[in-house]
Amino acid sequence: MRGRNNPKWISLAKRSIMSLAAAFALVASSSPVQAQWSLLDDFQNLTVGDFVEGTTGPGALWTGDGSSINTAQLDPSDSSNLAMRVSGTPGNGVLRAQFSNASDQIAAGTTGTLYYRFRTPVAANGTTDHVVGLIDDPALTNFNFKSGLRNTVPAGVNNMDVRNGGSYESVAGLADDTWYSLWMVSDNLNPGTFEVYLQSNTDPTFATQTQLATATPETVFDYRVNSALPLIGAYFRNANNTGGVAGNDLYFDDIYVDSSGSNLTIPSASAIPEPTSVGLLLSGLGVFFARRRRR
């Protein structure tokens, strides 16, 4: 009983409890952001050469019309990583990533965010016209996505357009053979609008996260089509690409959705608890019990 009334032991206990409280506060404060992103696919469960269509990723069922050449391939920038390569085939190839979990759907009247990384081709090697959008129809085969954009190569230059209501408008010139992170924040209203943000670790133009704008300038874009239905999937579609030309391929990887609102964080960083928070928690526990045992 005397040990428990020892002022030094009481002081130590108080300090340890305060450390534990701080650790729990750090973990709690970081968890809500980390928990929002839901991984649709990073293609790590596939092997080189596997077709993506017909597979089920961590959070998406991949369907299509059988004409899109979409395979898991080694990342040209990192041979330890697998990504989805969409080859520049002639005509139109349809690929859909339907959200497996109902909680990932972006309900009508709410806001959600699609995140993915993409790698541009060598523009001089051919044409590229590839659309990415959010859809409300699990069997969509035309271009009637709600919010969407496209990668194109007009005149041998990589370019990004957004679909702003009834037409496409250019919002960015891109570098060759370069990975970009993209955030599409979609307000699923009727009528709906969306915003697009871009960042790259190797293109100095987008060294920091940048909101894309048209020449007008406009940063909030109108949906292509409107409805009172939830957004239930992502849409990837080739359109009139030149086939069989080396380098005329787009790569996609790390596709996530956050159905809770606008989220401009990087999922791979925010989906895992920070080591400092966990370390502080474990350290506090270890110090508390080790010192108490010695008493």
Q: Kindly provide the radius of gyration, computed on alpha-carbon positions and rounded to a whole number of angstroms.
A: 23 Å
Report the strand count.
Answer: 16
Oligomer: single chain
**Rough shape?**
globular
Largest sheet descriptor: 9 strands, antiparallel
CATH architecture: Sandwich
Low-pLDDT stretches are: 16-35, 269-295
Mean pLDDT across the residues is: 81
CATH classification, class level: Mainly Beta
Number of domains: 1
CATH T-level topology: Jelly Rolls
Query: Helical amount among residues, as a percent range?
Result: 10-25%
Strand content: 35-45%
**Class derived from helix and strand content:** alpha+beta
Helix and strand succession?
A: HEEEEEEEEEEEEEEEEHH
SS summary, helix count? 3
Task: Report the end-to-end length measured between terminal Cα atoms.
Answer: 12 Å
Describe the structure in your own words:
This protein has a single domain, classed as Jelly Rolls, CATH 2.60.120. The chain has three helices and 16 strands. Helices cover 18% and strands 36% of the residues. The protein is of the alpha+beta class and 295 residues long. The protein has helices at 7-36, 267-270, 275-294; strands at residues 38-41, 60-64, 70-75, 78-87, 92-99, 111-119, 129-135, 147-152, 159-164, 167-173, 179-187, 193-199, 210-211, 221-222, 233-239, 249-258. The protein starts with 6 loop residues before the first helix and ends with a helix. Mean pLDDT is 81; it is low at 16-35 and 269-295. The strands form two sheets. Strands 1, 3, 4, 6, 11, 12, 13, 14 and 16 form a nine-stranded antiparallel β-sheet that branches. The chain has a seven-stranded antiparallel β-sheet with strand order 2-5-15-7-8-9-10, with no helix packed on it.
